[in-house]
Amino acid sequence: MNFQWYPGHMTKAKRQMQEDMKLIDLVIELVDARIPLSSRNPDIDDLGKNKYRLILMNKSDLADRKQTEAWSSYFRSRGFFVVCLDARSKNGMKNVTDVIMEACKEKMERDRKRGIKNRPVRAMVVGIPNVGKSTFINSYAGKACAKTGNKPGVTKGKQWIRLNKNVELLDTPGILWPKFEDQMVGLRLALIGSIKDEILNTDELAIELIHILTGMYPGVLKDRYGVDEEQKDTDILCEIAEKRNCLSKGNELDYSKAATLLIDEFRSGKLGKITLEIVK
Ligand code: G4P
Asked: Measured in angstroms, how far is the CA atom of residue 57 from the centroid of ligand 1?
């Protein structure tokens, strides 16, 4: 399956990101806990070098808890601070401030020793589209905190949200571009709904999902749809269409309807908590 992307967006986003990086101390990067690596753009490691780094494993309400723990250890072992989060229901949000403070402890201590007072740590939220950046900013900082307004000089044109007396957050998230070169990455992004469905072949996507699920989570499709998992992936889709009575106008089995149903149910968590990528 081929996925499209638009180079114009990439160039612009990257330039903007480079500018914003000059203003901040801490990068708060959101990833989707169901595909923690495929929902990252590793270029952020270069763009954010010399910055403190926090990874928020968002949508962890939809991900396999064991895998989320394994991925948290993976990122921690690479020097990131990590918080698992469900930004929509605000689960895990309480820990974020503490971890931000912990991540920037060194800088705050250094400032204190130099006699620099009232210089808050500055942070920005980054991530590929649809990982929950806006949801996070709104639920974390939206109501509770006052916007600080533009300040002369370095922050011109930028709006900062004061989180507490030590931390300020840039109110607009940085949009990273997904990495499409690897077809498996593209496939995983499509499955979680990060690529516009109009450019996807839903039937093909559903077959791929069936293939992944029967391999990684045997029993899930049997439990949800009562299908026999010991048959070809395409036959499993046919059986889902039968079991769920997916019919076209002429009362024929409608496989595309079944494909859409399966993908929707996966995305909304009805198939259970599933992570599509495991730590190697
Ligand atoms: P973005 O800024 O990174 O592009 O993402 P955004 O906040 O717009 O979130 C994308 C979708 O993900 C939204 O759903 C949002 O509600 C959902 N979302 C964000 N965080 C979480 C989370 O922790 N768990 C779950 N399950 N979902 C989350 P939507 O369908 O586009 O909108 P809506 O259903 O909220 O109206």
From this structure: 13
Topology of domain 201-267, CATH: Conserved Hypothetical Protein Ylqf; Chain: A; domain 2 (1.10.1580)
Q: Name the β-bridge partners of 83.
A: 56
Residue located nearest, by CA, to atom 29 of ligand 1? 130
pLDDT tens by residue, 178-233: 887 788 999 999 999 988 776 779 999 999 999 999 999 999 999 999 999 999 99
Predicted TM-score of the model (pTM)? 0.91
Domains of the chain, residue spans: 7-175, 201-267
Q: Is the ipTM of this complex over 0.95?
A: yes
Q: Provide CB contacts within 8 A for 200, sequence distance 6+.
A: 1, 3, 190
34 within 8 A of 62, measured Cβ to Cβ: yes
What fold is seen in the domain 7-175? Rossmann fold (3.40.50)
Strand, helix or coil for residue 210? helix
The residue whose CB lies within 8 Å of the most ligand 1 atoms, and thus the one to mutate among 44, 90, 95, 130, is 130
